[in-house]
Amino acid sequence: MAQPTNTQFAVGVHLLTLLAGDPGRWRDSQSLAVSPATNPAHVRRVLGRLRAAGLVRSQPGPHGGWMLTREAEAIDLSQVWIALNHEDPVLGVHVPQPDCEVGQRVHRNLLALDRRARDAMLAELTRTTVADVLREDAVAPTAVGV
Questions:
Q1: How many other CB atoms are found less than 10 A from the CB of residue 11?
Q2: Tens digit of pLDDT for each residue in 106-130?
Q3: Comparing C-alpha atoms, which of 26, 103, 98, 30 is closest to residue 65?
Q4: 43 close to 15: Cβ distance less than 8 angstroms
Q5: What is the mean pLDDT of the chain?
Q6: Maximal C-alpha separation, the chain
Q7: By C-alpha distance, which of 142, 134, 143, 138 is closest to 15?
Q8: Is 58 helix (H, G, I), strand (E, B) or coil?
Q9: Going by C-beta distance under 8 Å and a sequence separation of 6 or more, which residues neighbour residue 90?
Q10: Which of 74, 119, 121, 125 has its CA 20 to 30 A from that of 62?
């Protein structure tokens, strides 16, 4: 199965869930990197963006690390998506040649579709919190069209 090229959202949710499972305790990037099978530098990059969004805080030093800034119930997954992806397109829209009329039309229409898809995705992500992800049965798939 093909892997997505950008896994920062999944890693970010994973890290926040790890922190939520151990509230009030500083966790270092080395220990956090084990569970999502990544490296501490990548963990720091992802958590740095989540810190800039106010979702985590950090403390340097031998007894420092990372911690949530609020309860896991107060962090929904749309906040995580926005912190890590900002306004990036979700459909991977390409940029056509400037003098190609068809390409420009396709580009405009795909950008509009991308905006609608992003809005729908964010609306769905808003319905799930980090606390939900921490619970074993909380994020069950729903039937299409229901």
A1: 22
A2: 999 999 999 999 999 999 999 999 9
A3: 26
A4: yes
A5: 90
A6: 59
A7: 134
A8: strand
A9: 114, 117, 118, 121
A10: 74
